[in-house]
Write a structure and sequence with these properties.
CATH architecture of the largest domain: 3-Layer(aba) Sandwich
Strand content: 5-15%
Number of helices: 16
Shape: globular
Number of domains: 2
Distance between the termini: 131 Å
Oligomer: single chain
CATH class of the largest domain: Alpha Beta
Radius of gyration: 31 Å
Helix content: 40-55%
Structural class: alpha/beta
Largest sheet: 7 strands, mixed
Length: 424
């Protein structure tokens, strides 16, 4: 198991981009006063092995498919300890819900990663020591995936699904599929599953990647395609879900909007409770989509525990600035520069530059055509329309009664004449 952990560390160290550490030392970054933290879960077993996978039997793995391994728990324990060191000036040693809030997608490995991370961030001290275990239970909040439009982004959005299909059928993606059709056919034949897209390739690559980490011998057929032919397509697949501005707005816009709200409220002393850290535990796609939305993503698979830090700082001039950092190795995080701004981005400028990527009404923006009009029909408007229809029906009824009454009078008088008693 130590071998797996070492290999994971070596592999993740290979992926680095952003501003250099030397460059950051020359910046007036000031003091961190608040942090939004988004990270990927830790090491896991394969989620969905392909049908012909010789390692496709769950009993061959230390934990069931898709679950967090002991290596993954250890990774997040260490990351939590790193957070403790980085934010020691912000966070008291004893946990309180007024300092930190943690939200996770409703998946075992992300929930467990958050818990392992918190064990490193908040080892119990003083009165909070309740057992020799030296562990402090801390709430991790979640909602069902299909109801989650913030973090899991699995809540149904018709406009997003339609636009994603447009992207998948675009000349750019179709050319990639056409250029790799021979590879798709080869993989389909060897894996026993239909391979038709870069996302399908990514799933196979991910399974093989994990099997290599765990020293599993790969089938002979993989030698001609893994990793060289699969990795570029797998890396590119992480750009698809947030491939354009509309997809970004609907996929990660709500998460970005919530983070921006935290920064602005904190700068105005209006964040309630007045928390110091907001943590989001999610997936590689969540990290990739978020960085895509900020136009900061270089195609790659965000490794286990990959972390994005969106931090509010106060510089030497007492100005609020925002920094974005990406930590995907055991080293210090790399500062990233939001396009149109600088590394130490003034808060007002940051809000301005991200505004177009944040939906004002996500549910409404997800609707298509007539659904948008239906969405605007509220209970008061329904009541008003009902009253109007009732009045129209009553008036129409009165009109019909009046017409019928008039015609009856006409009919009764048509053949009768008034008699007179006047002399002839």
């Amino acid at each position: 198991m130590r071998t797996v952990e070492a290999v994971v560390a070596v592999v993740t160290t290979c992926i680095v981009f952003g501003a250099s550490s030397a460059y950051s030392k020359n910046l007036d970054l000031g003091t961190i006063v608040f942090a939004n933290i988004l990270f990927r879960h830790g090491d896991r077993t394969p989620v969905d092995p392909y049908p012909t996978d010789p390692w496709g039997n769950e009993t061959l793995w230390p934990v069931p498919f898709g679950q967090l391994t002991n290596v993954g728990k250890s990774q997040h324990l260490r990351l939590g300890r790193w957070f403790r060191e980085r934010y020691s000036h912000l966070l008291p040693e004893c946990y309180t819900p007024y300092d930190v809030y943690v939200q996770s997608t409703d998946i075992d490995r992300t929930l467990m990663s958050a818990e392992a991370n918190l064990a490193g961030l908040y080892p119990p001290e003083g009165d909070q020591v309740w057992d020799k275990l030296k562990w402090m239970p801390i709430p991790v909040h979640t909602i069902p995936e299909l109801e989650d439009s913030l973090l899991a982004s699995k809540k149904y959005c018709p406009k997003y699904e339609m636009e994603l299909q447009n992207v998948m059928n675009s000349p750019e993606i179709r050319k990639i599929d056409d250029d790799n059709q021979e590879l798709y056919n080869y993989l389909s034949k060897k894996t026993g599953t239909m391979v038709q897209s870069v996302s399908d390739v990514s799933g196979i690559y991910n399974t093989l990647f994990i099997e290599v980490l765990y020293n599993r011998t790969l089938p002979e057929w993989t030698k001609s395609v893994y990793p060289d032919k699969l990795k570029p397509l797998a890396d590119f697949s992480f750009t698809v879900e947030a491939h354009n501005k509309l997809l970004q707005r609907l996929k990660s816009g709500r998460l970005l909007g919530e983070m921006v709200d935290h920064l602005v409220s904190k700068s105005k002393n209006a964040l309630f409770p007045n928390r110091k850290i907001w943590i989001y535990s999610a997936h590689d796609t969540t990290v990739a989509n978020f960085l895509m939305t900020l136009d900061l993503f270089e195609p790659h698979c965000p490794p286990y525990t990959a972390t994005v830090l969106v931090e509010l700082r106060v510089n030497s001039l007492k100005q609020h600035i925002v920094t974005i950092s990406y930590k995907n190795t055991s080293a210090e995080p790399r500062l990233l520069t939001l396009p149109g701004c600088e590394v130490a981005c003034p808060l007002g400028k940051f809000v301005e530059l991200t505004n177009d990527m944040i939906p004002k009404d996500w549910a409404k923006e997800c609707l298509l055509g007539w659904e948008q009009y239906a969405h605007n029909i509220t209970m008061p408007s329904i009541f008003g329309i009902s009253i109007l229809l009732l009045v129209i029906i009553i008036l129409l009824g009165l009109l019909i009664i009046g017409v019928v009454y008039y015609h009856r009078n006409c009919d009764s008088n048509r053949y009768y004449f008034k008699l007179t008693t006047d002399p002839i």
